[in-house]
Amino acid sequence: MQKVSVIIPTFNRSNFIIEALESIFIQEYFPLEIIIVDDGSTDDTKKVLKPYLDRIQYIYQENKGLGPARNRGIEKATGEYIAFLDSDDRWKPNKLKVQVDLLNVKPNIAVVCTDFVNFSEDGIIFGGQRNWEAYRRYHLSLEGQVFKHKAKLSEFIPNIQSDFKDTFVLWGNIFEYYLWGPLLFISTALFRKKCIEKIYDELFDYNYTHDFYMFARIAQKYPIAFIDKPLVEKRSRIKEKHGQAAQLTSEKHQIPLRLEYLQLTVNLWVKNKTFYKTHKKAVNYRLGGIHSDLAYKYRKIGNYKKAFKHFQKSISYHSFQKRTYFYLMETAIRSLINELFH
Known about the structure:
Glycosyltransferase family 2 protein, Serine Threonine Protein Phosphatase 5, Tetratricopeptide repeat, Spore Coat Polysaccharide Biosynthesis Protein SpsA, Chain A, 11-stranded mixed beta sheet, 2 domains, 11 strands
């Protein structure tokens, strides 16, 4: 019985989206439906998808952002399970099957994720398993700390393919650790739709951090599982722009992202009074880091007034390096000069 709705949000990815789509067509477990939400593409996305319109649902909307595009797909999905695939990534052929098999026998699990690898523009796989690297970046141990439980997949799926005989699955309640940042990748996940539906209205508050909020909010309520095998390939593209101008553009783009991180950190971990009381030091450290990051980004684009405000907040939550105090004074002086002469 087909149970999976696949949602692909896309924006100006006509040169990649067919490769993503073909990776769905070769799945050993074929989905119930494939929903492509075109978020106002100005390239020839619609044209390249035309030969596939009898096999997909194509929805076009004015450009609203990645979060609203995913929400539109969720609204249209009819499957019991929902998978998201970014339009420049691709799946291994057995990705959906092993996830569906696991969810079928583990009804308490809300989401099953897998590991992933990167591939270059010329198709070459490089680097190791990416989730392990992400956890090391946050000084977390994926096994035993974040995920408390571990077993071979074959214990739950006795007739599993030989490729998975020695593959482990880890699972547990990971909400506490999601405080530190994104620990899972959206293109690897298979969600129970009913778990998303319970938080669906909240998702409209987030665009840049839509997937982060969805993972963290579900982790607050349910256990999440992780299959320790890369079943997704994530495209790594070479940046088209270089130099100072590109850096400033990047800073401006990153600011709304960090502001959303700040908002959801407050909503999920500070307003949760029980959690905040028992994890106050960790939460304040995280808040200090976000404010510090925002302060440096505002400083780089010359908004010294906002930089000063966030340096103040950063220090109030956590005392960082001595240079933070130096930049606090510097941005205060520059902000004052700007007000006096402008």
